[in-house]
Amino acid sequence: MAVGRRFGALAGVAAAAVALAAAELVAVATGPRSAPLVAVGGVVVDTVPEPVKAFAIEVFGFYDKIALLVGTVLLLAAFAALVGVAAGRSLRAGYAGIALFGVVGVAAALTRPGATALSALPALVGAGAAGAALWLLLRDRVIAGTATDTGTDADADATAGKAAGQAVDGAGQAVGGAGQAVGGAEGRGRRTVLAMIGGAAVLGLGARVLSTRRDVSAVRAGVVLPAPASPAPPVPAGADLRLPRLAPYVTDNASFYLIDTALVVPQVDPRAWRLRVHGRVRRPLELTFADLLARPMVERHITLCCVSNEVGGDLIGNARWLGVPVRDLLDQAEPVDGADQVVSRSVDGWTCGTPTAVLRDGRDALLAVGMNGEPLPVAHGFPVRMVTPGLYGYVSACKWLVELELTTFAEFDAYWVRRGWAQQAAVKTQSRIDVPRRGAEVASGPTMVAGVAWAQHRGIIRVEVRVDGGEWQEATLAETVSVDTWRQWHWVWPATPGRHRLSVRATDGTRQTQTGMLSAPIPDGATGWDTIEVTVA
Ligand SMILES: Nc1nc2c(c(=O)[nH]1)N[C@H]1C(S)=C(S)[C@@H](COP(=O)(O)O)O[C@H]1N2
Ligand SMILES: [Mo]
User: Fold this and answer.
1) CB neighbours (10 Å) of residue 224?
2) Mutate to test the pocket of ligand 1, among 64, 399, 401, 427 (most ligand atoms within 8 A of CB)
3) How close is the Cα of 266 to the center of ligand 1, in Å?
4) 3-state secondary structure 276-300
5) Which pLDDT tens digit goes with each residue over 395-422?
6) How far is Cα 487 from Cα 477, in angstroms, rounded to an integer?
7) SS3 417
8) Are 511 and 461 in contact, with CB atoms under 8 Å apart?
9) Distance CA 126, CA 133 (A)
10) DSSP state of 531
11) Is 400 in the pocket of ligand 1 (CB under 6 A)?
């Protein structure tokens, strides 16, 4: 045994930190998504089984991506410590461990969508840097240790410390010195390693900030949106009750929910953007952003919601979208008979599949460039995304869109379909109680109960509320601009003292009433009535 286990582990962690920092520095040039942490994280996001992902979203919520990165770093640190311990015995074993990590990093970076040969560079440089760090930290100790026959870990540590005095600190410490001198050298060795870890962390984080700061916000700020040929109908005053805690009729961009698989928000420069419409079409098209903006624009309010939304959940929002009707582009490209699926592809490789028939049935499915009067926010898909009234986002609302490929449902399964979600998923009729909030205490007497209800593209014609499983009572519907958005509703409840359960259900434009049967979001959207408990004083 040559180097103390603790020191070896520490040296391994330091080498890993140096590797990540070096890789992040290279990724400033090769792009933030080629960094091994992001590439490996991306592979994890794409491959973890659905229940694990659902659990992560449940537990970490909105921070699931940060949790994933922190988890990956901790796991890496643990393995790096093991590699360091092995390296303390034989540097060659250490190099083998690093090579293994290098291979994983390179493989992940090269297999990410949009990868080029250059994407391998961060992991390669990182592995090289880790090897150098390990050599710097351990070479003399391993050699010294091999030359000294020591029995215990404590002895090994002492020997290592002695070597550190020579190698790392280079202070020319007397080798045959007293135990006191050896302990001091050991301390200095440790300090060197800790400094290395700290320095690498600062450098790595700095590089990350630098590479993600080179984003497209400045370009976005310069985008001038054309006026719509067909403007959105004005929102009637009666569409919004403006109650505290009640979701406003129009969701502002900053509060609009965000769901995607991207660990790093794609930065797509509209000047380089191209949309290809191809596959089973007679006339493939390619458009620039200017081409798209030159086409007649339509502006509509459309409510978008996520299939993962639980009953009562808030993965839903309503915005005023500006864009080109998808149907116009399809008409121009002329899909061949039987091409029943339009696959939208994002710049980061994510895909969704929408029925061709839905996109051509006259509804306002848009290739959107504007959201509530602004260019699309970067996180919501700048410069171009799709929105389709009536379908869940995962089958209809591709962000950072670069391709529309006409194909068939038999031929191709999109991203979430391969992971167990339904190929086709129309939004289910749903309703939610926003006021009073869950678990609230309210005063007895007339009490405002309010919320939202949605059944995009079918519309909402009735909302009912019941108390403690009693008779359903009809609520008052607020106005709306179309069947493609949610509607607010309210009902004045003669509240009596005690604990009470309030439930809501909606009926859509096809006269179907929302089912009370509980089902989970997977595979095609949750069902059940939103039910809250409140205490009346
Ligand atoms: N490129 C890309 N587009 C995507 C997704 C994604 O992961 N990647 N997620 C989809 C899902 S599941 C939903 S619900 C909507 C959410 O859109 P938002 O984040 O703008 O609210 O985007 C859709 N478009
Ligand atoms: Mo979603």
Assistant:
1) 6
2) 399
3) 12
4) EEEECECCCEEEEHHHHHHCCCEEE
5) 999 999 999 999 999 999 999 999 889 9
6) 7
7) coil
8) yes
9) 10
10) E
11) yes
**Is the peptide bond preceding residue 523 cis, with omega within 30 degrees of 0?**
yes
Q: How many whole angstroms separate alpha carbon 409 and alpha carbon 206?
A: 45
DSSP code string of 392-407 = -GGGT--SSEEEEEEE
Count the Cβ atoms, other than its own, within 10 Å of residue 496: 10
Q: For residues 396 and 163, what is the distance between their CA atoms, to the nearest angstrom?
A: 63
Written in H, E and C, the secondary structure of 243-268 is CCCCCCCCCCHHHCCCCCCCCCCCCC
Residue with tokens 């529309």: 404
**What distance in Å separates the CA atoms of residue 468 and residue 462, rounded to the nearest whole number?**
20
First vs last Cα of the chain: how many Å apart? 72
Label the pairing between strands 531-536 and 441-442. Answer: parallel
Put residue 497 in one of left, alpha, beta given phi > 0 → left and psi -120 to 50 → alpha. Answer: beta
Torsion angle in degrees (nearest 10) through CA of 28, 33, 38, 40: -120
Query: Residue 305: nearest ligand to its CA?
Result: 1
447: left (phi over 0), alpha (psi -120 to 50) or beta: beta
Q: Give the integer Cα–Cα distance in Å for 444 and 46.
A: 51
pLDDT in tens, 339-358: 999 999 999 999 999 999 99
Angstrom distance (rounded) from CA 487 to CA 347: 34
Question: Which run of H or of E encompasses 369?
Answer: strand 366-371
Distance (Å, whole) CA 512 – CA 460: 10
Check: CB of residue 326 under 8 Å from CB of residue 344. no
Is the C-beta atom of 397 inside 6 A of ligand 1? yes
CA–CA separation, 43 vs 40, rounded Å? 5
Collapsing DSSP states into helix, strand and coil, what is residue 517? coil
Q: What is the pLDDT of residues 151-201, one digit of tens each?
A: 344 434 444 444 433 443 333 333 333 334 444 555 668 888 889 999 999
In this prediction the pTM is: 0.85
Measured in degrees and rounded to the nearest 5, phi and psi for residue 461 equal -110, -15
Tell me which ligand sits closest to the C-alpha of residue 398: 1
Residue of the CA atom closest to atom 12 of ligand 1: 394
Using alpha carbons, list the distances in angstroms from residue 93 to 4, 135, 139, 147: 16, 12, 13, 18
Q: How far apart are the CA of 123 and the centre of ligand 1, in A?
A: 29
Domains and CATH numbers, the chain: 5-213 (no CATH), 274-419 (3.90.420.10), 430-536 (2.60.40.650)
Three-state secondary structure call for residue 314: coil
- Separation CA 334–CA 406 (nearest Å): 10
Q: What average pLDDT score do residues 415-441 get? A: 96
Coil/strand/helix, residue 494: strand
For residues 102 and 10, what is the distance between their CA atoms, to the nearest angstrom? 19
Ligand 1 proximity of 393 Cβ (cutoff 6 Å): yes
